[in-house]
Specification:
64% of the residues lie in helices and 0% in strands. It has seven helices and no strands.
Length: 143
């Protein structure tokens, strides 16, 4: 019985069609990017448990230490909900959402930079400043 050598999976078979990137988590991210992914993850988990969080917050209003005992059932329900939704699958979905919105974030950064440049140009025009910050009148008077 001769066994054939195992075939390597083709690169096209591992493509995620929604991302058109070779893997679910294609790039190593910087620390700040990982923090952004975690922020998306936490927001998603809080979104799933919004009702439980609201119930606990309503119970804890005007309480400090006594909230530990008085709101125990609401806290346990809230924590159970968050533990139920705080999964690796949810982390993967948050990472996919972060990658899916990166083009939108890039466009927003570019638009913000254009608005900043336009505001700077108007400021220079209003105050009669040149690019380096010198006054137009004083530069014209110099020999």
């Amino acid at each position: 019985m001769a066994s054939s050598p195992p075939t390597a999976p083709s690169p096209s078979s591992s493509l995620d069609p929604s991302l058109s990137i070779p893997s679910r988590n294609p790039l190593p991210l910087s620390a700040s990017q990982e923090q952004q992914v975690r922020d998306v993850y936490y927001a998603r988990v809080r979104g799933h448990c919004a009702a439980e969080i609201k119930d606990f917050a309503a119970c804890a209003i005007n309480r400090t230490v006594s909230a530990t005992w008085a709101c125990r059932t609401q806290r346990l329900v809230m924590n159970a909900c968050m533990m139920q939704h705080a999964t690796v699958e949810e982390q993967d979905k948050a990472r996919e959402e972060w990658f899916a919105t990166r083009q939108q974030r890039r466009r927003e950064r570019e638009e913000k930079e254009l608005r900043r440049q336009e505001a700077e140009r108007k400021h220079r025009e209003w105050w009669g400043l040149q690019q380096d910050g010198e006054d137009n009148k004083t530069s014209k008077e110099r020999p």
